[in-house]
Amino acid sequence: VMKKKLEKYCRGMEGVEGKLVVNILAGLNKVAYPSFDTNTHRNTFSLADVSMADTIIESATRALRNIRPAKLYEELDFELLEYLLNQAGINFAESNQTKRVADIIDYFYSNPKLPMVRDEVIKSAILDGVKSLRIGIRKGSRIYFKKVYECRKPDQCTPPSVEEGEQPHSIELDDVVLPWRTALQEQLEHLKETKEERVAGGIKRVWHAFYINGELIPVAEALESFDLDTLRLSPVVRVVEVIQEGVDVKLDKYEVSVAPDEEVEIGIVLDRVGMFVGEVFLETSDGDLSRSKVSIDDKNPTATVEWKIKAPGEPGSYTYDVKAKSASGELLREVRLALIVRPRGREANKGIPPKGTKVSLIELEVDALNFKPLRVIDVKFGPSSEVEEASLELQASVGDRSPRISVMLSNVALDDVKSIFPAIVQMYGIAIGSMRYRLRIRPRTGDYMEAPEFGEEEARDLERYMKYYVYEEG
Length: 474
Prior knowledge:
The protein folds into four domains: 2-73, no CATH class; 76-243, no CATH class; 246-341, Immunoglobulin-like (Sandwich), CATH 2.60.40; 349-470, no CATH class. It is 25% helix and 38% strand. It is built from twelve helices and 29 strands. The strands form seven sheets. Strands 23, 24, 25, 26, 27, 28 and 29 form a seven-stranded antiparallel beta sheet that branches. Strands 8, 10, 11, 12 and 13 form a five-stranded mixed beta sheet that branches. Strands 15-22-21-17-19 form a five-stranded mixed beta sheet, with no helix packed on it. A hairpin with a 2-residue loop joins strand 6 and strand 7 (142-144). Helix 4 (78-87) packs across helix 6. The longest helix is centred in the C-terminal third of the chain and has 15 residues, at 414-428. It is elongated and about 120 Å long.
């Protein structure tokens, strides 16, 4: 009986041990944590009030979670991870610097501006960034960024309407975190080439393309025609097709803009597919060919034929076909040319003005999800110009809805257009089915703007979309 009384006196919450624990917990009223003094710009520590809990650890963690800003996070998504690092002066998603996963984790151990976060929570937030296409991961020689969807036939590609990044199953400390632009460029470098192998019945051709505005655009071509912001949000598909043995026919231009009655010359390129040997006969719906029969064999696996067409006298859009047939009359390949005949009379000059040209008005029309021309115009003419009129039209497909957006701006700065239009497009992302924007840009002061010099890449990005009017004195 005495032994039981003694144990009851010593043990349990009513005994000496319990009361000692309660007194210790009650006496713990502060917890110290690393912090940064913004006044003295030095690392120091701060104190937080502690409320009583069942354990010392629970008391401390509760206090660190409840202070503002919190010094302990048990969950993170990428948005919060990026925000915390930006607050500490560390930017990696929009920079051009790469960082190891270990380096990012080390920031949370060494920088008192940052909260306490477990390693696995940080890794989970990094994976979330890959999923949202904000960053990429390099594991060895492989880049994890955009998902690549399989497509057996080019005319039957239907990638998902919501684009997500491809996450690795896990990430290690030595894996490298890439800013999204770097990740996209490195990934696309591996997807630019077309690979072919001989199979039964022809050639198996594997190539990659972006799915933009309902069309497949090969990666190499898309890199020249669209900015990285557009490509980041556009699905990539891997096209695997078996091409019948024979010839492949391509044009050096698939769309040409000409004046009425102007003669245009198009190059027709024939490439051998597989082990085909024989004569190929070319037929066109209009125009003259430099030759209508071509021999394809081991010594001559490729050939070029010149095609001359005289444009119609009436403005409008016209199409012309080229067919390649075998000696037996079998159709091997068919391609189509689009000819756009401009109106007569006083017209704008299409393309890039030479350096020093006095320009009284610029018209920009882009019928694609591509803001690169807008950015080039802003860099070259922004300070000396203003937007007389700007319009944006887009149609999207969101579930069972098909929203249409139409925005008109007038007498605004180019900066305003550059901020507003991309923000609207960002709301719908890859759900956009079609988009077009137009701008009329005039001098901010005076009668003209003087054209600066354009680099090769700038000219390539802009020349298809720009028209300009030369200032005439008097």
